[in-house]
Amino acid sequence: MNLLYISISGNTRAFVNRLHAYAADQPAKHTWSVKEIHDNSIFEAETEPFVAFVPTYLEGGNGVDNGDQEILTETLREYIDFGDNATHCLGVIGSGNKNFNYQYCLTAKQYAAQFDVPFLADFELRGTNQDIETIYSILKEVDTSAK
Q: For the chain, how far is it from start to end, CA to CA, in angstroms?
């Protein structure tokens, strides 16, 4: 299974790297590869299952009546939408800042709806150690069910 992510401020990158290191230290080894998608990424066909990690960056507003337009993370959406990539997506994990209330993880929820995959989990900013453990457990289940 692959872990695909986009990181603008470095928070998502830091979280995914910590998660990957945590997974490597666990007794049950998982062969998860990590791939960062960015504006200069060359789109390619994904051939293995993956989970997408996406932060939330939206244009102002409140996320209800307005301000629900994604900005800065569109490259990941386009990458998943490329070719048959979406058929390999097992779910989405979102991040954001809880100070933004309804907008918290809204981008990930939009991805989940667009690609008809589950919204698996969320974490705030760089996440906590508890978030790492929780999301690791969720990914183990997703990985096992994908096989």
A: 9
CA neighbours within 13 Å on the CB side: how many for 43? 14
List alpha helices for the chain, DSSP H. Answer: 11-24, 74-81, 106-115, 129-146
* Band of pLDDT at residue 31, cut at 50, 70 and 90: confident
Domains of the chain by start residue, with CATH: 2-107+114-146 (3.40.50.360)
What is the tens place of the pLDDT at every residue in 51-109? 999 998 766 666 667 766 766 799 999 999 999 999 999 999 999 988 888 888 999 99
Contact 83, 42 (CB under 8 A): no
Give how far Cα 120 sits from Cα of 2, 42, 80, 124, Å. Answer: 15, 26, 16, 14
Dihedral (CA of 73, 75, 76, 80) sign: positive
pLDDT of residue 53: 98
CB of 63 closer than 8 Å to CB of 102: yes
For the entire predicted model, the pTM comes to: 0.92
Residue 119's CB is within 10 A of a number of other CB atoms, namely: 16
The 119-124 sheet, strands edge to edge:
33-36, 2-5, 50-55, 89-96, 119-124
